[in-house]
Protein: DNA mismatch repair protein MutL
Amino acid sequence: PRLANQIAAGEVVERPASVLKELVENCLDAGADQIDIELEAGGVKLLRVRDNGCGIDPEDLPLALARHATSKILTLDDLEGVASLGFRGEALASISSVSRLELITSTDDSGKGWRVVAEGRDMQPQVTPAPHPQGTSLIVRDLFFNTPARRKFLRTERTEFSHLEEVFRRLALSRPDVGFSLKHQGKLVHQLPAVTADQDAAAAQDASMQRIARLLGREFMDQSLVVDSEASGIRLHGWVGLPVYARAQADRQYFFVNGRVVRDKLVAHAIRQAYQDVLFGGRHPVFVLHLEVDPQVVDVNVHPTKHEVRFRDGRWVHDFIFSALHKRLSGALI
Ligand code: ADP
Ligand code: MG
Structure:
């Protein structure tokens, strides 16, 4: 079974950035509104993710690390319109098979919690008491220490860090309502306060602009338009770069469906068409867009890592996105 684990690990655990994605998605699934990340040596030496979510019951701790154990799907019906980011129960099992993993968690504010460690091959999880505020800390050390072949594929710390930062950027853009911080080598790289519901609309708008400016640069803020369009059962909001701000590479395109990162042909086509119609060369538009639709009309779990979606009525979604952007962009040119 160990061998199977290590092979399967390759599917979700390609590099430190894929570990970070899985860990942060778990925090979001746990309902956290603050997520703090610490990295060392491009995430290979240390990757620590701490959240203030629901925590894990001590009885469930060994299960959390077991393959195909998930707390997120109770019935087959749940698969329809599933709201959680994970539901396969594979990530922690895979990660623990190729690292030294430590998990400390608490389900309440007593200050008391539980700790479990798993190290590569010998994984009989031992649960012991350990102090922790409500939430969970996942600490992953020495990634790929027992899989030299995989370790060889890692690039320089700097390159791994840039992959990690891109994952961070996507997740932080996907959930403005969650506070994030990121440290690398003890240095604070990002500190992003949550945009909270009790802020008024102007304050909330300001906070999300701050976040985008920090993640994508002031220039994007200065060169983009606010989008907010709604029709019955569908809303598109966010920022689109002015055509003059287009880039040579498609590296600044962020699209979220119900808070989830999505890369989708139909969506990309609608956006490209809108830009092309309103005067646009062969360069790539820059955007951060959130689409909100009834979860029943979209199937987001087509593939765990490919970020695809399947809309019940693709044409309707396509045309909505196209006309929302078209209107906004052509308005800006007058
Ligand atoms: P999945 O997310 O597909 O369920 P994972 O392997 O990522 O599978 O996680 C296994 C289980 O561990 C989850 O179903 C959840 O119950 C628990 N878990 C993992 N991380 C956290 C966290 N940060 N907070 C609360 N529970 C967690
Ligand atoms: Mg998960």
Summary: DSSP finds ten helices and 15 strands in the chain.
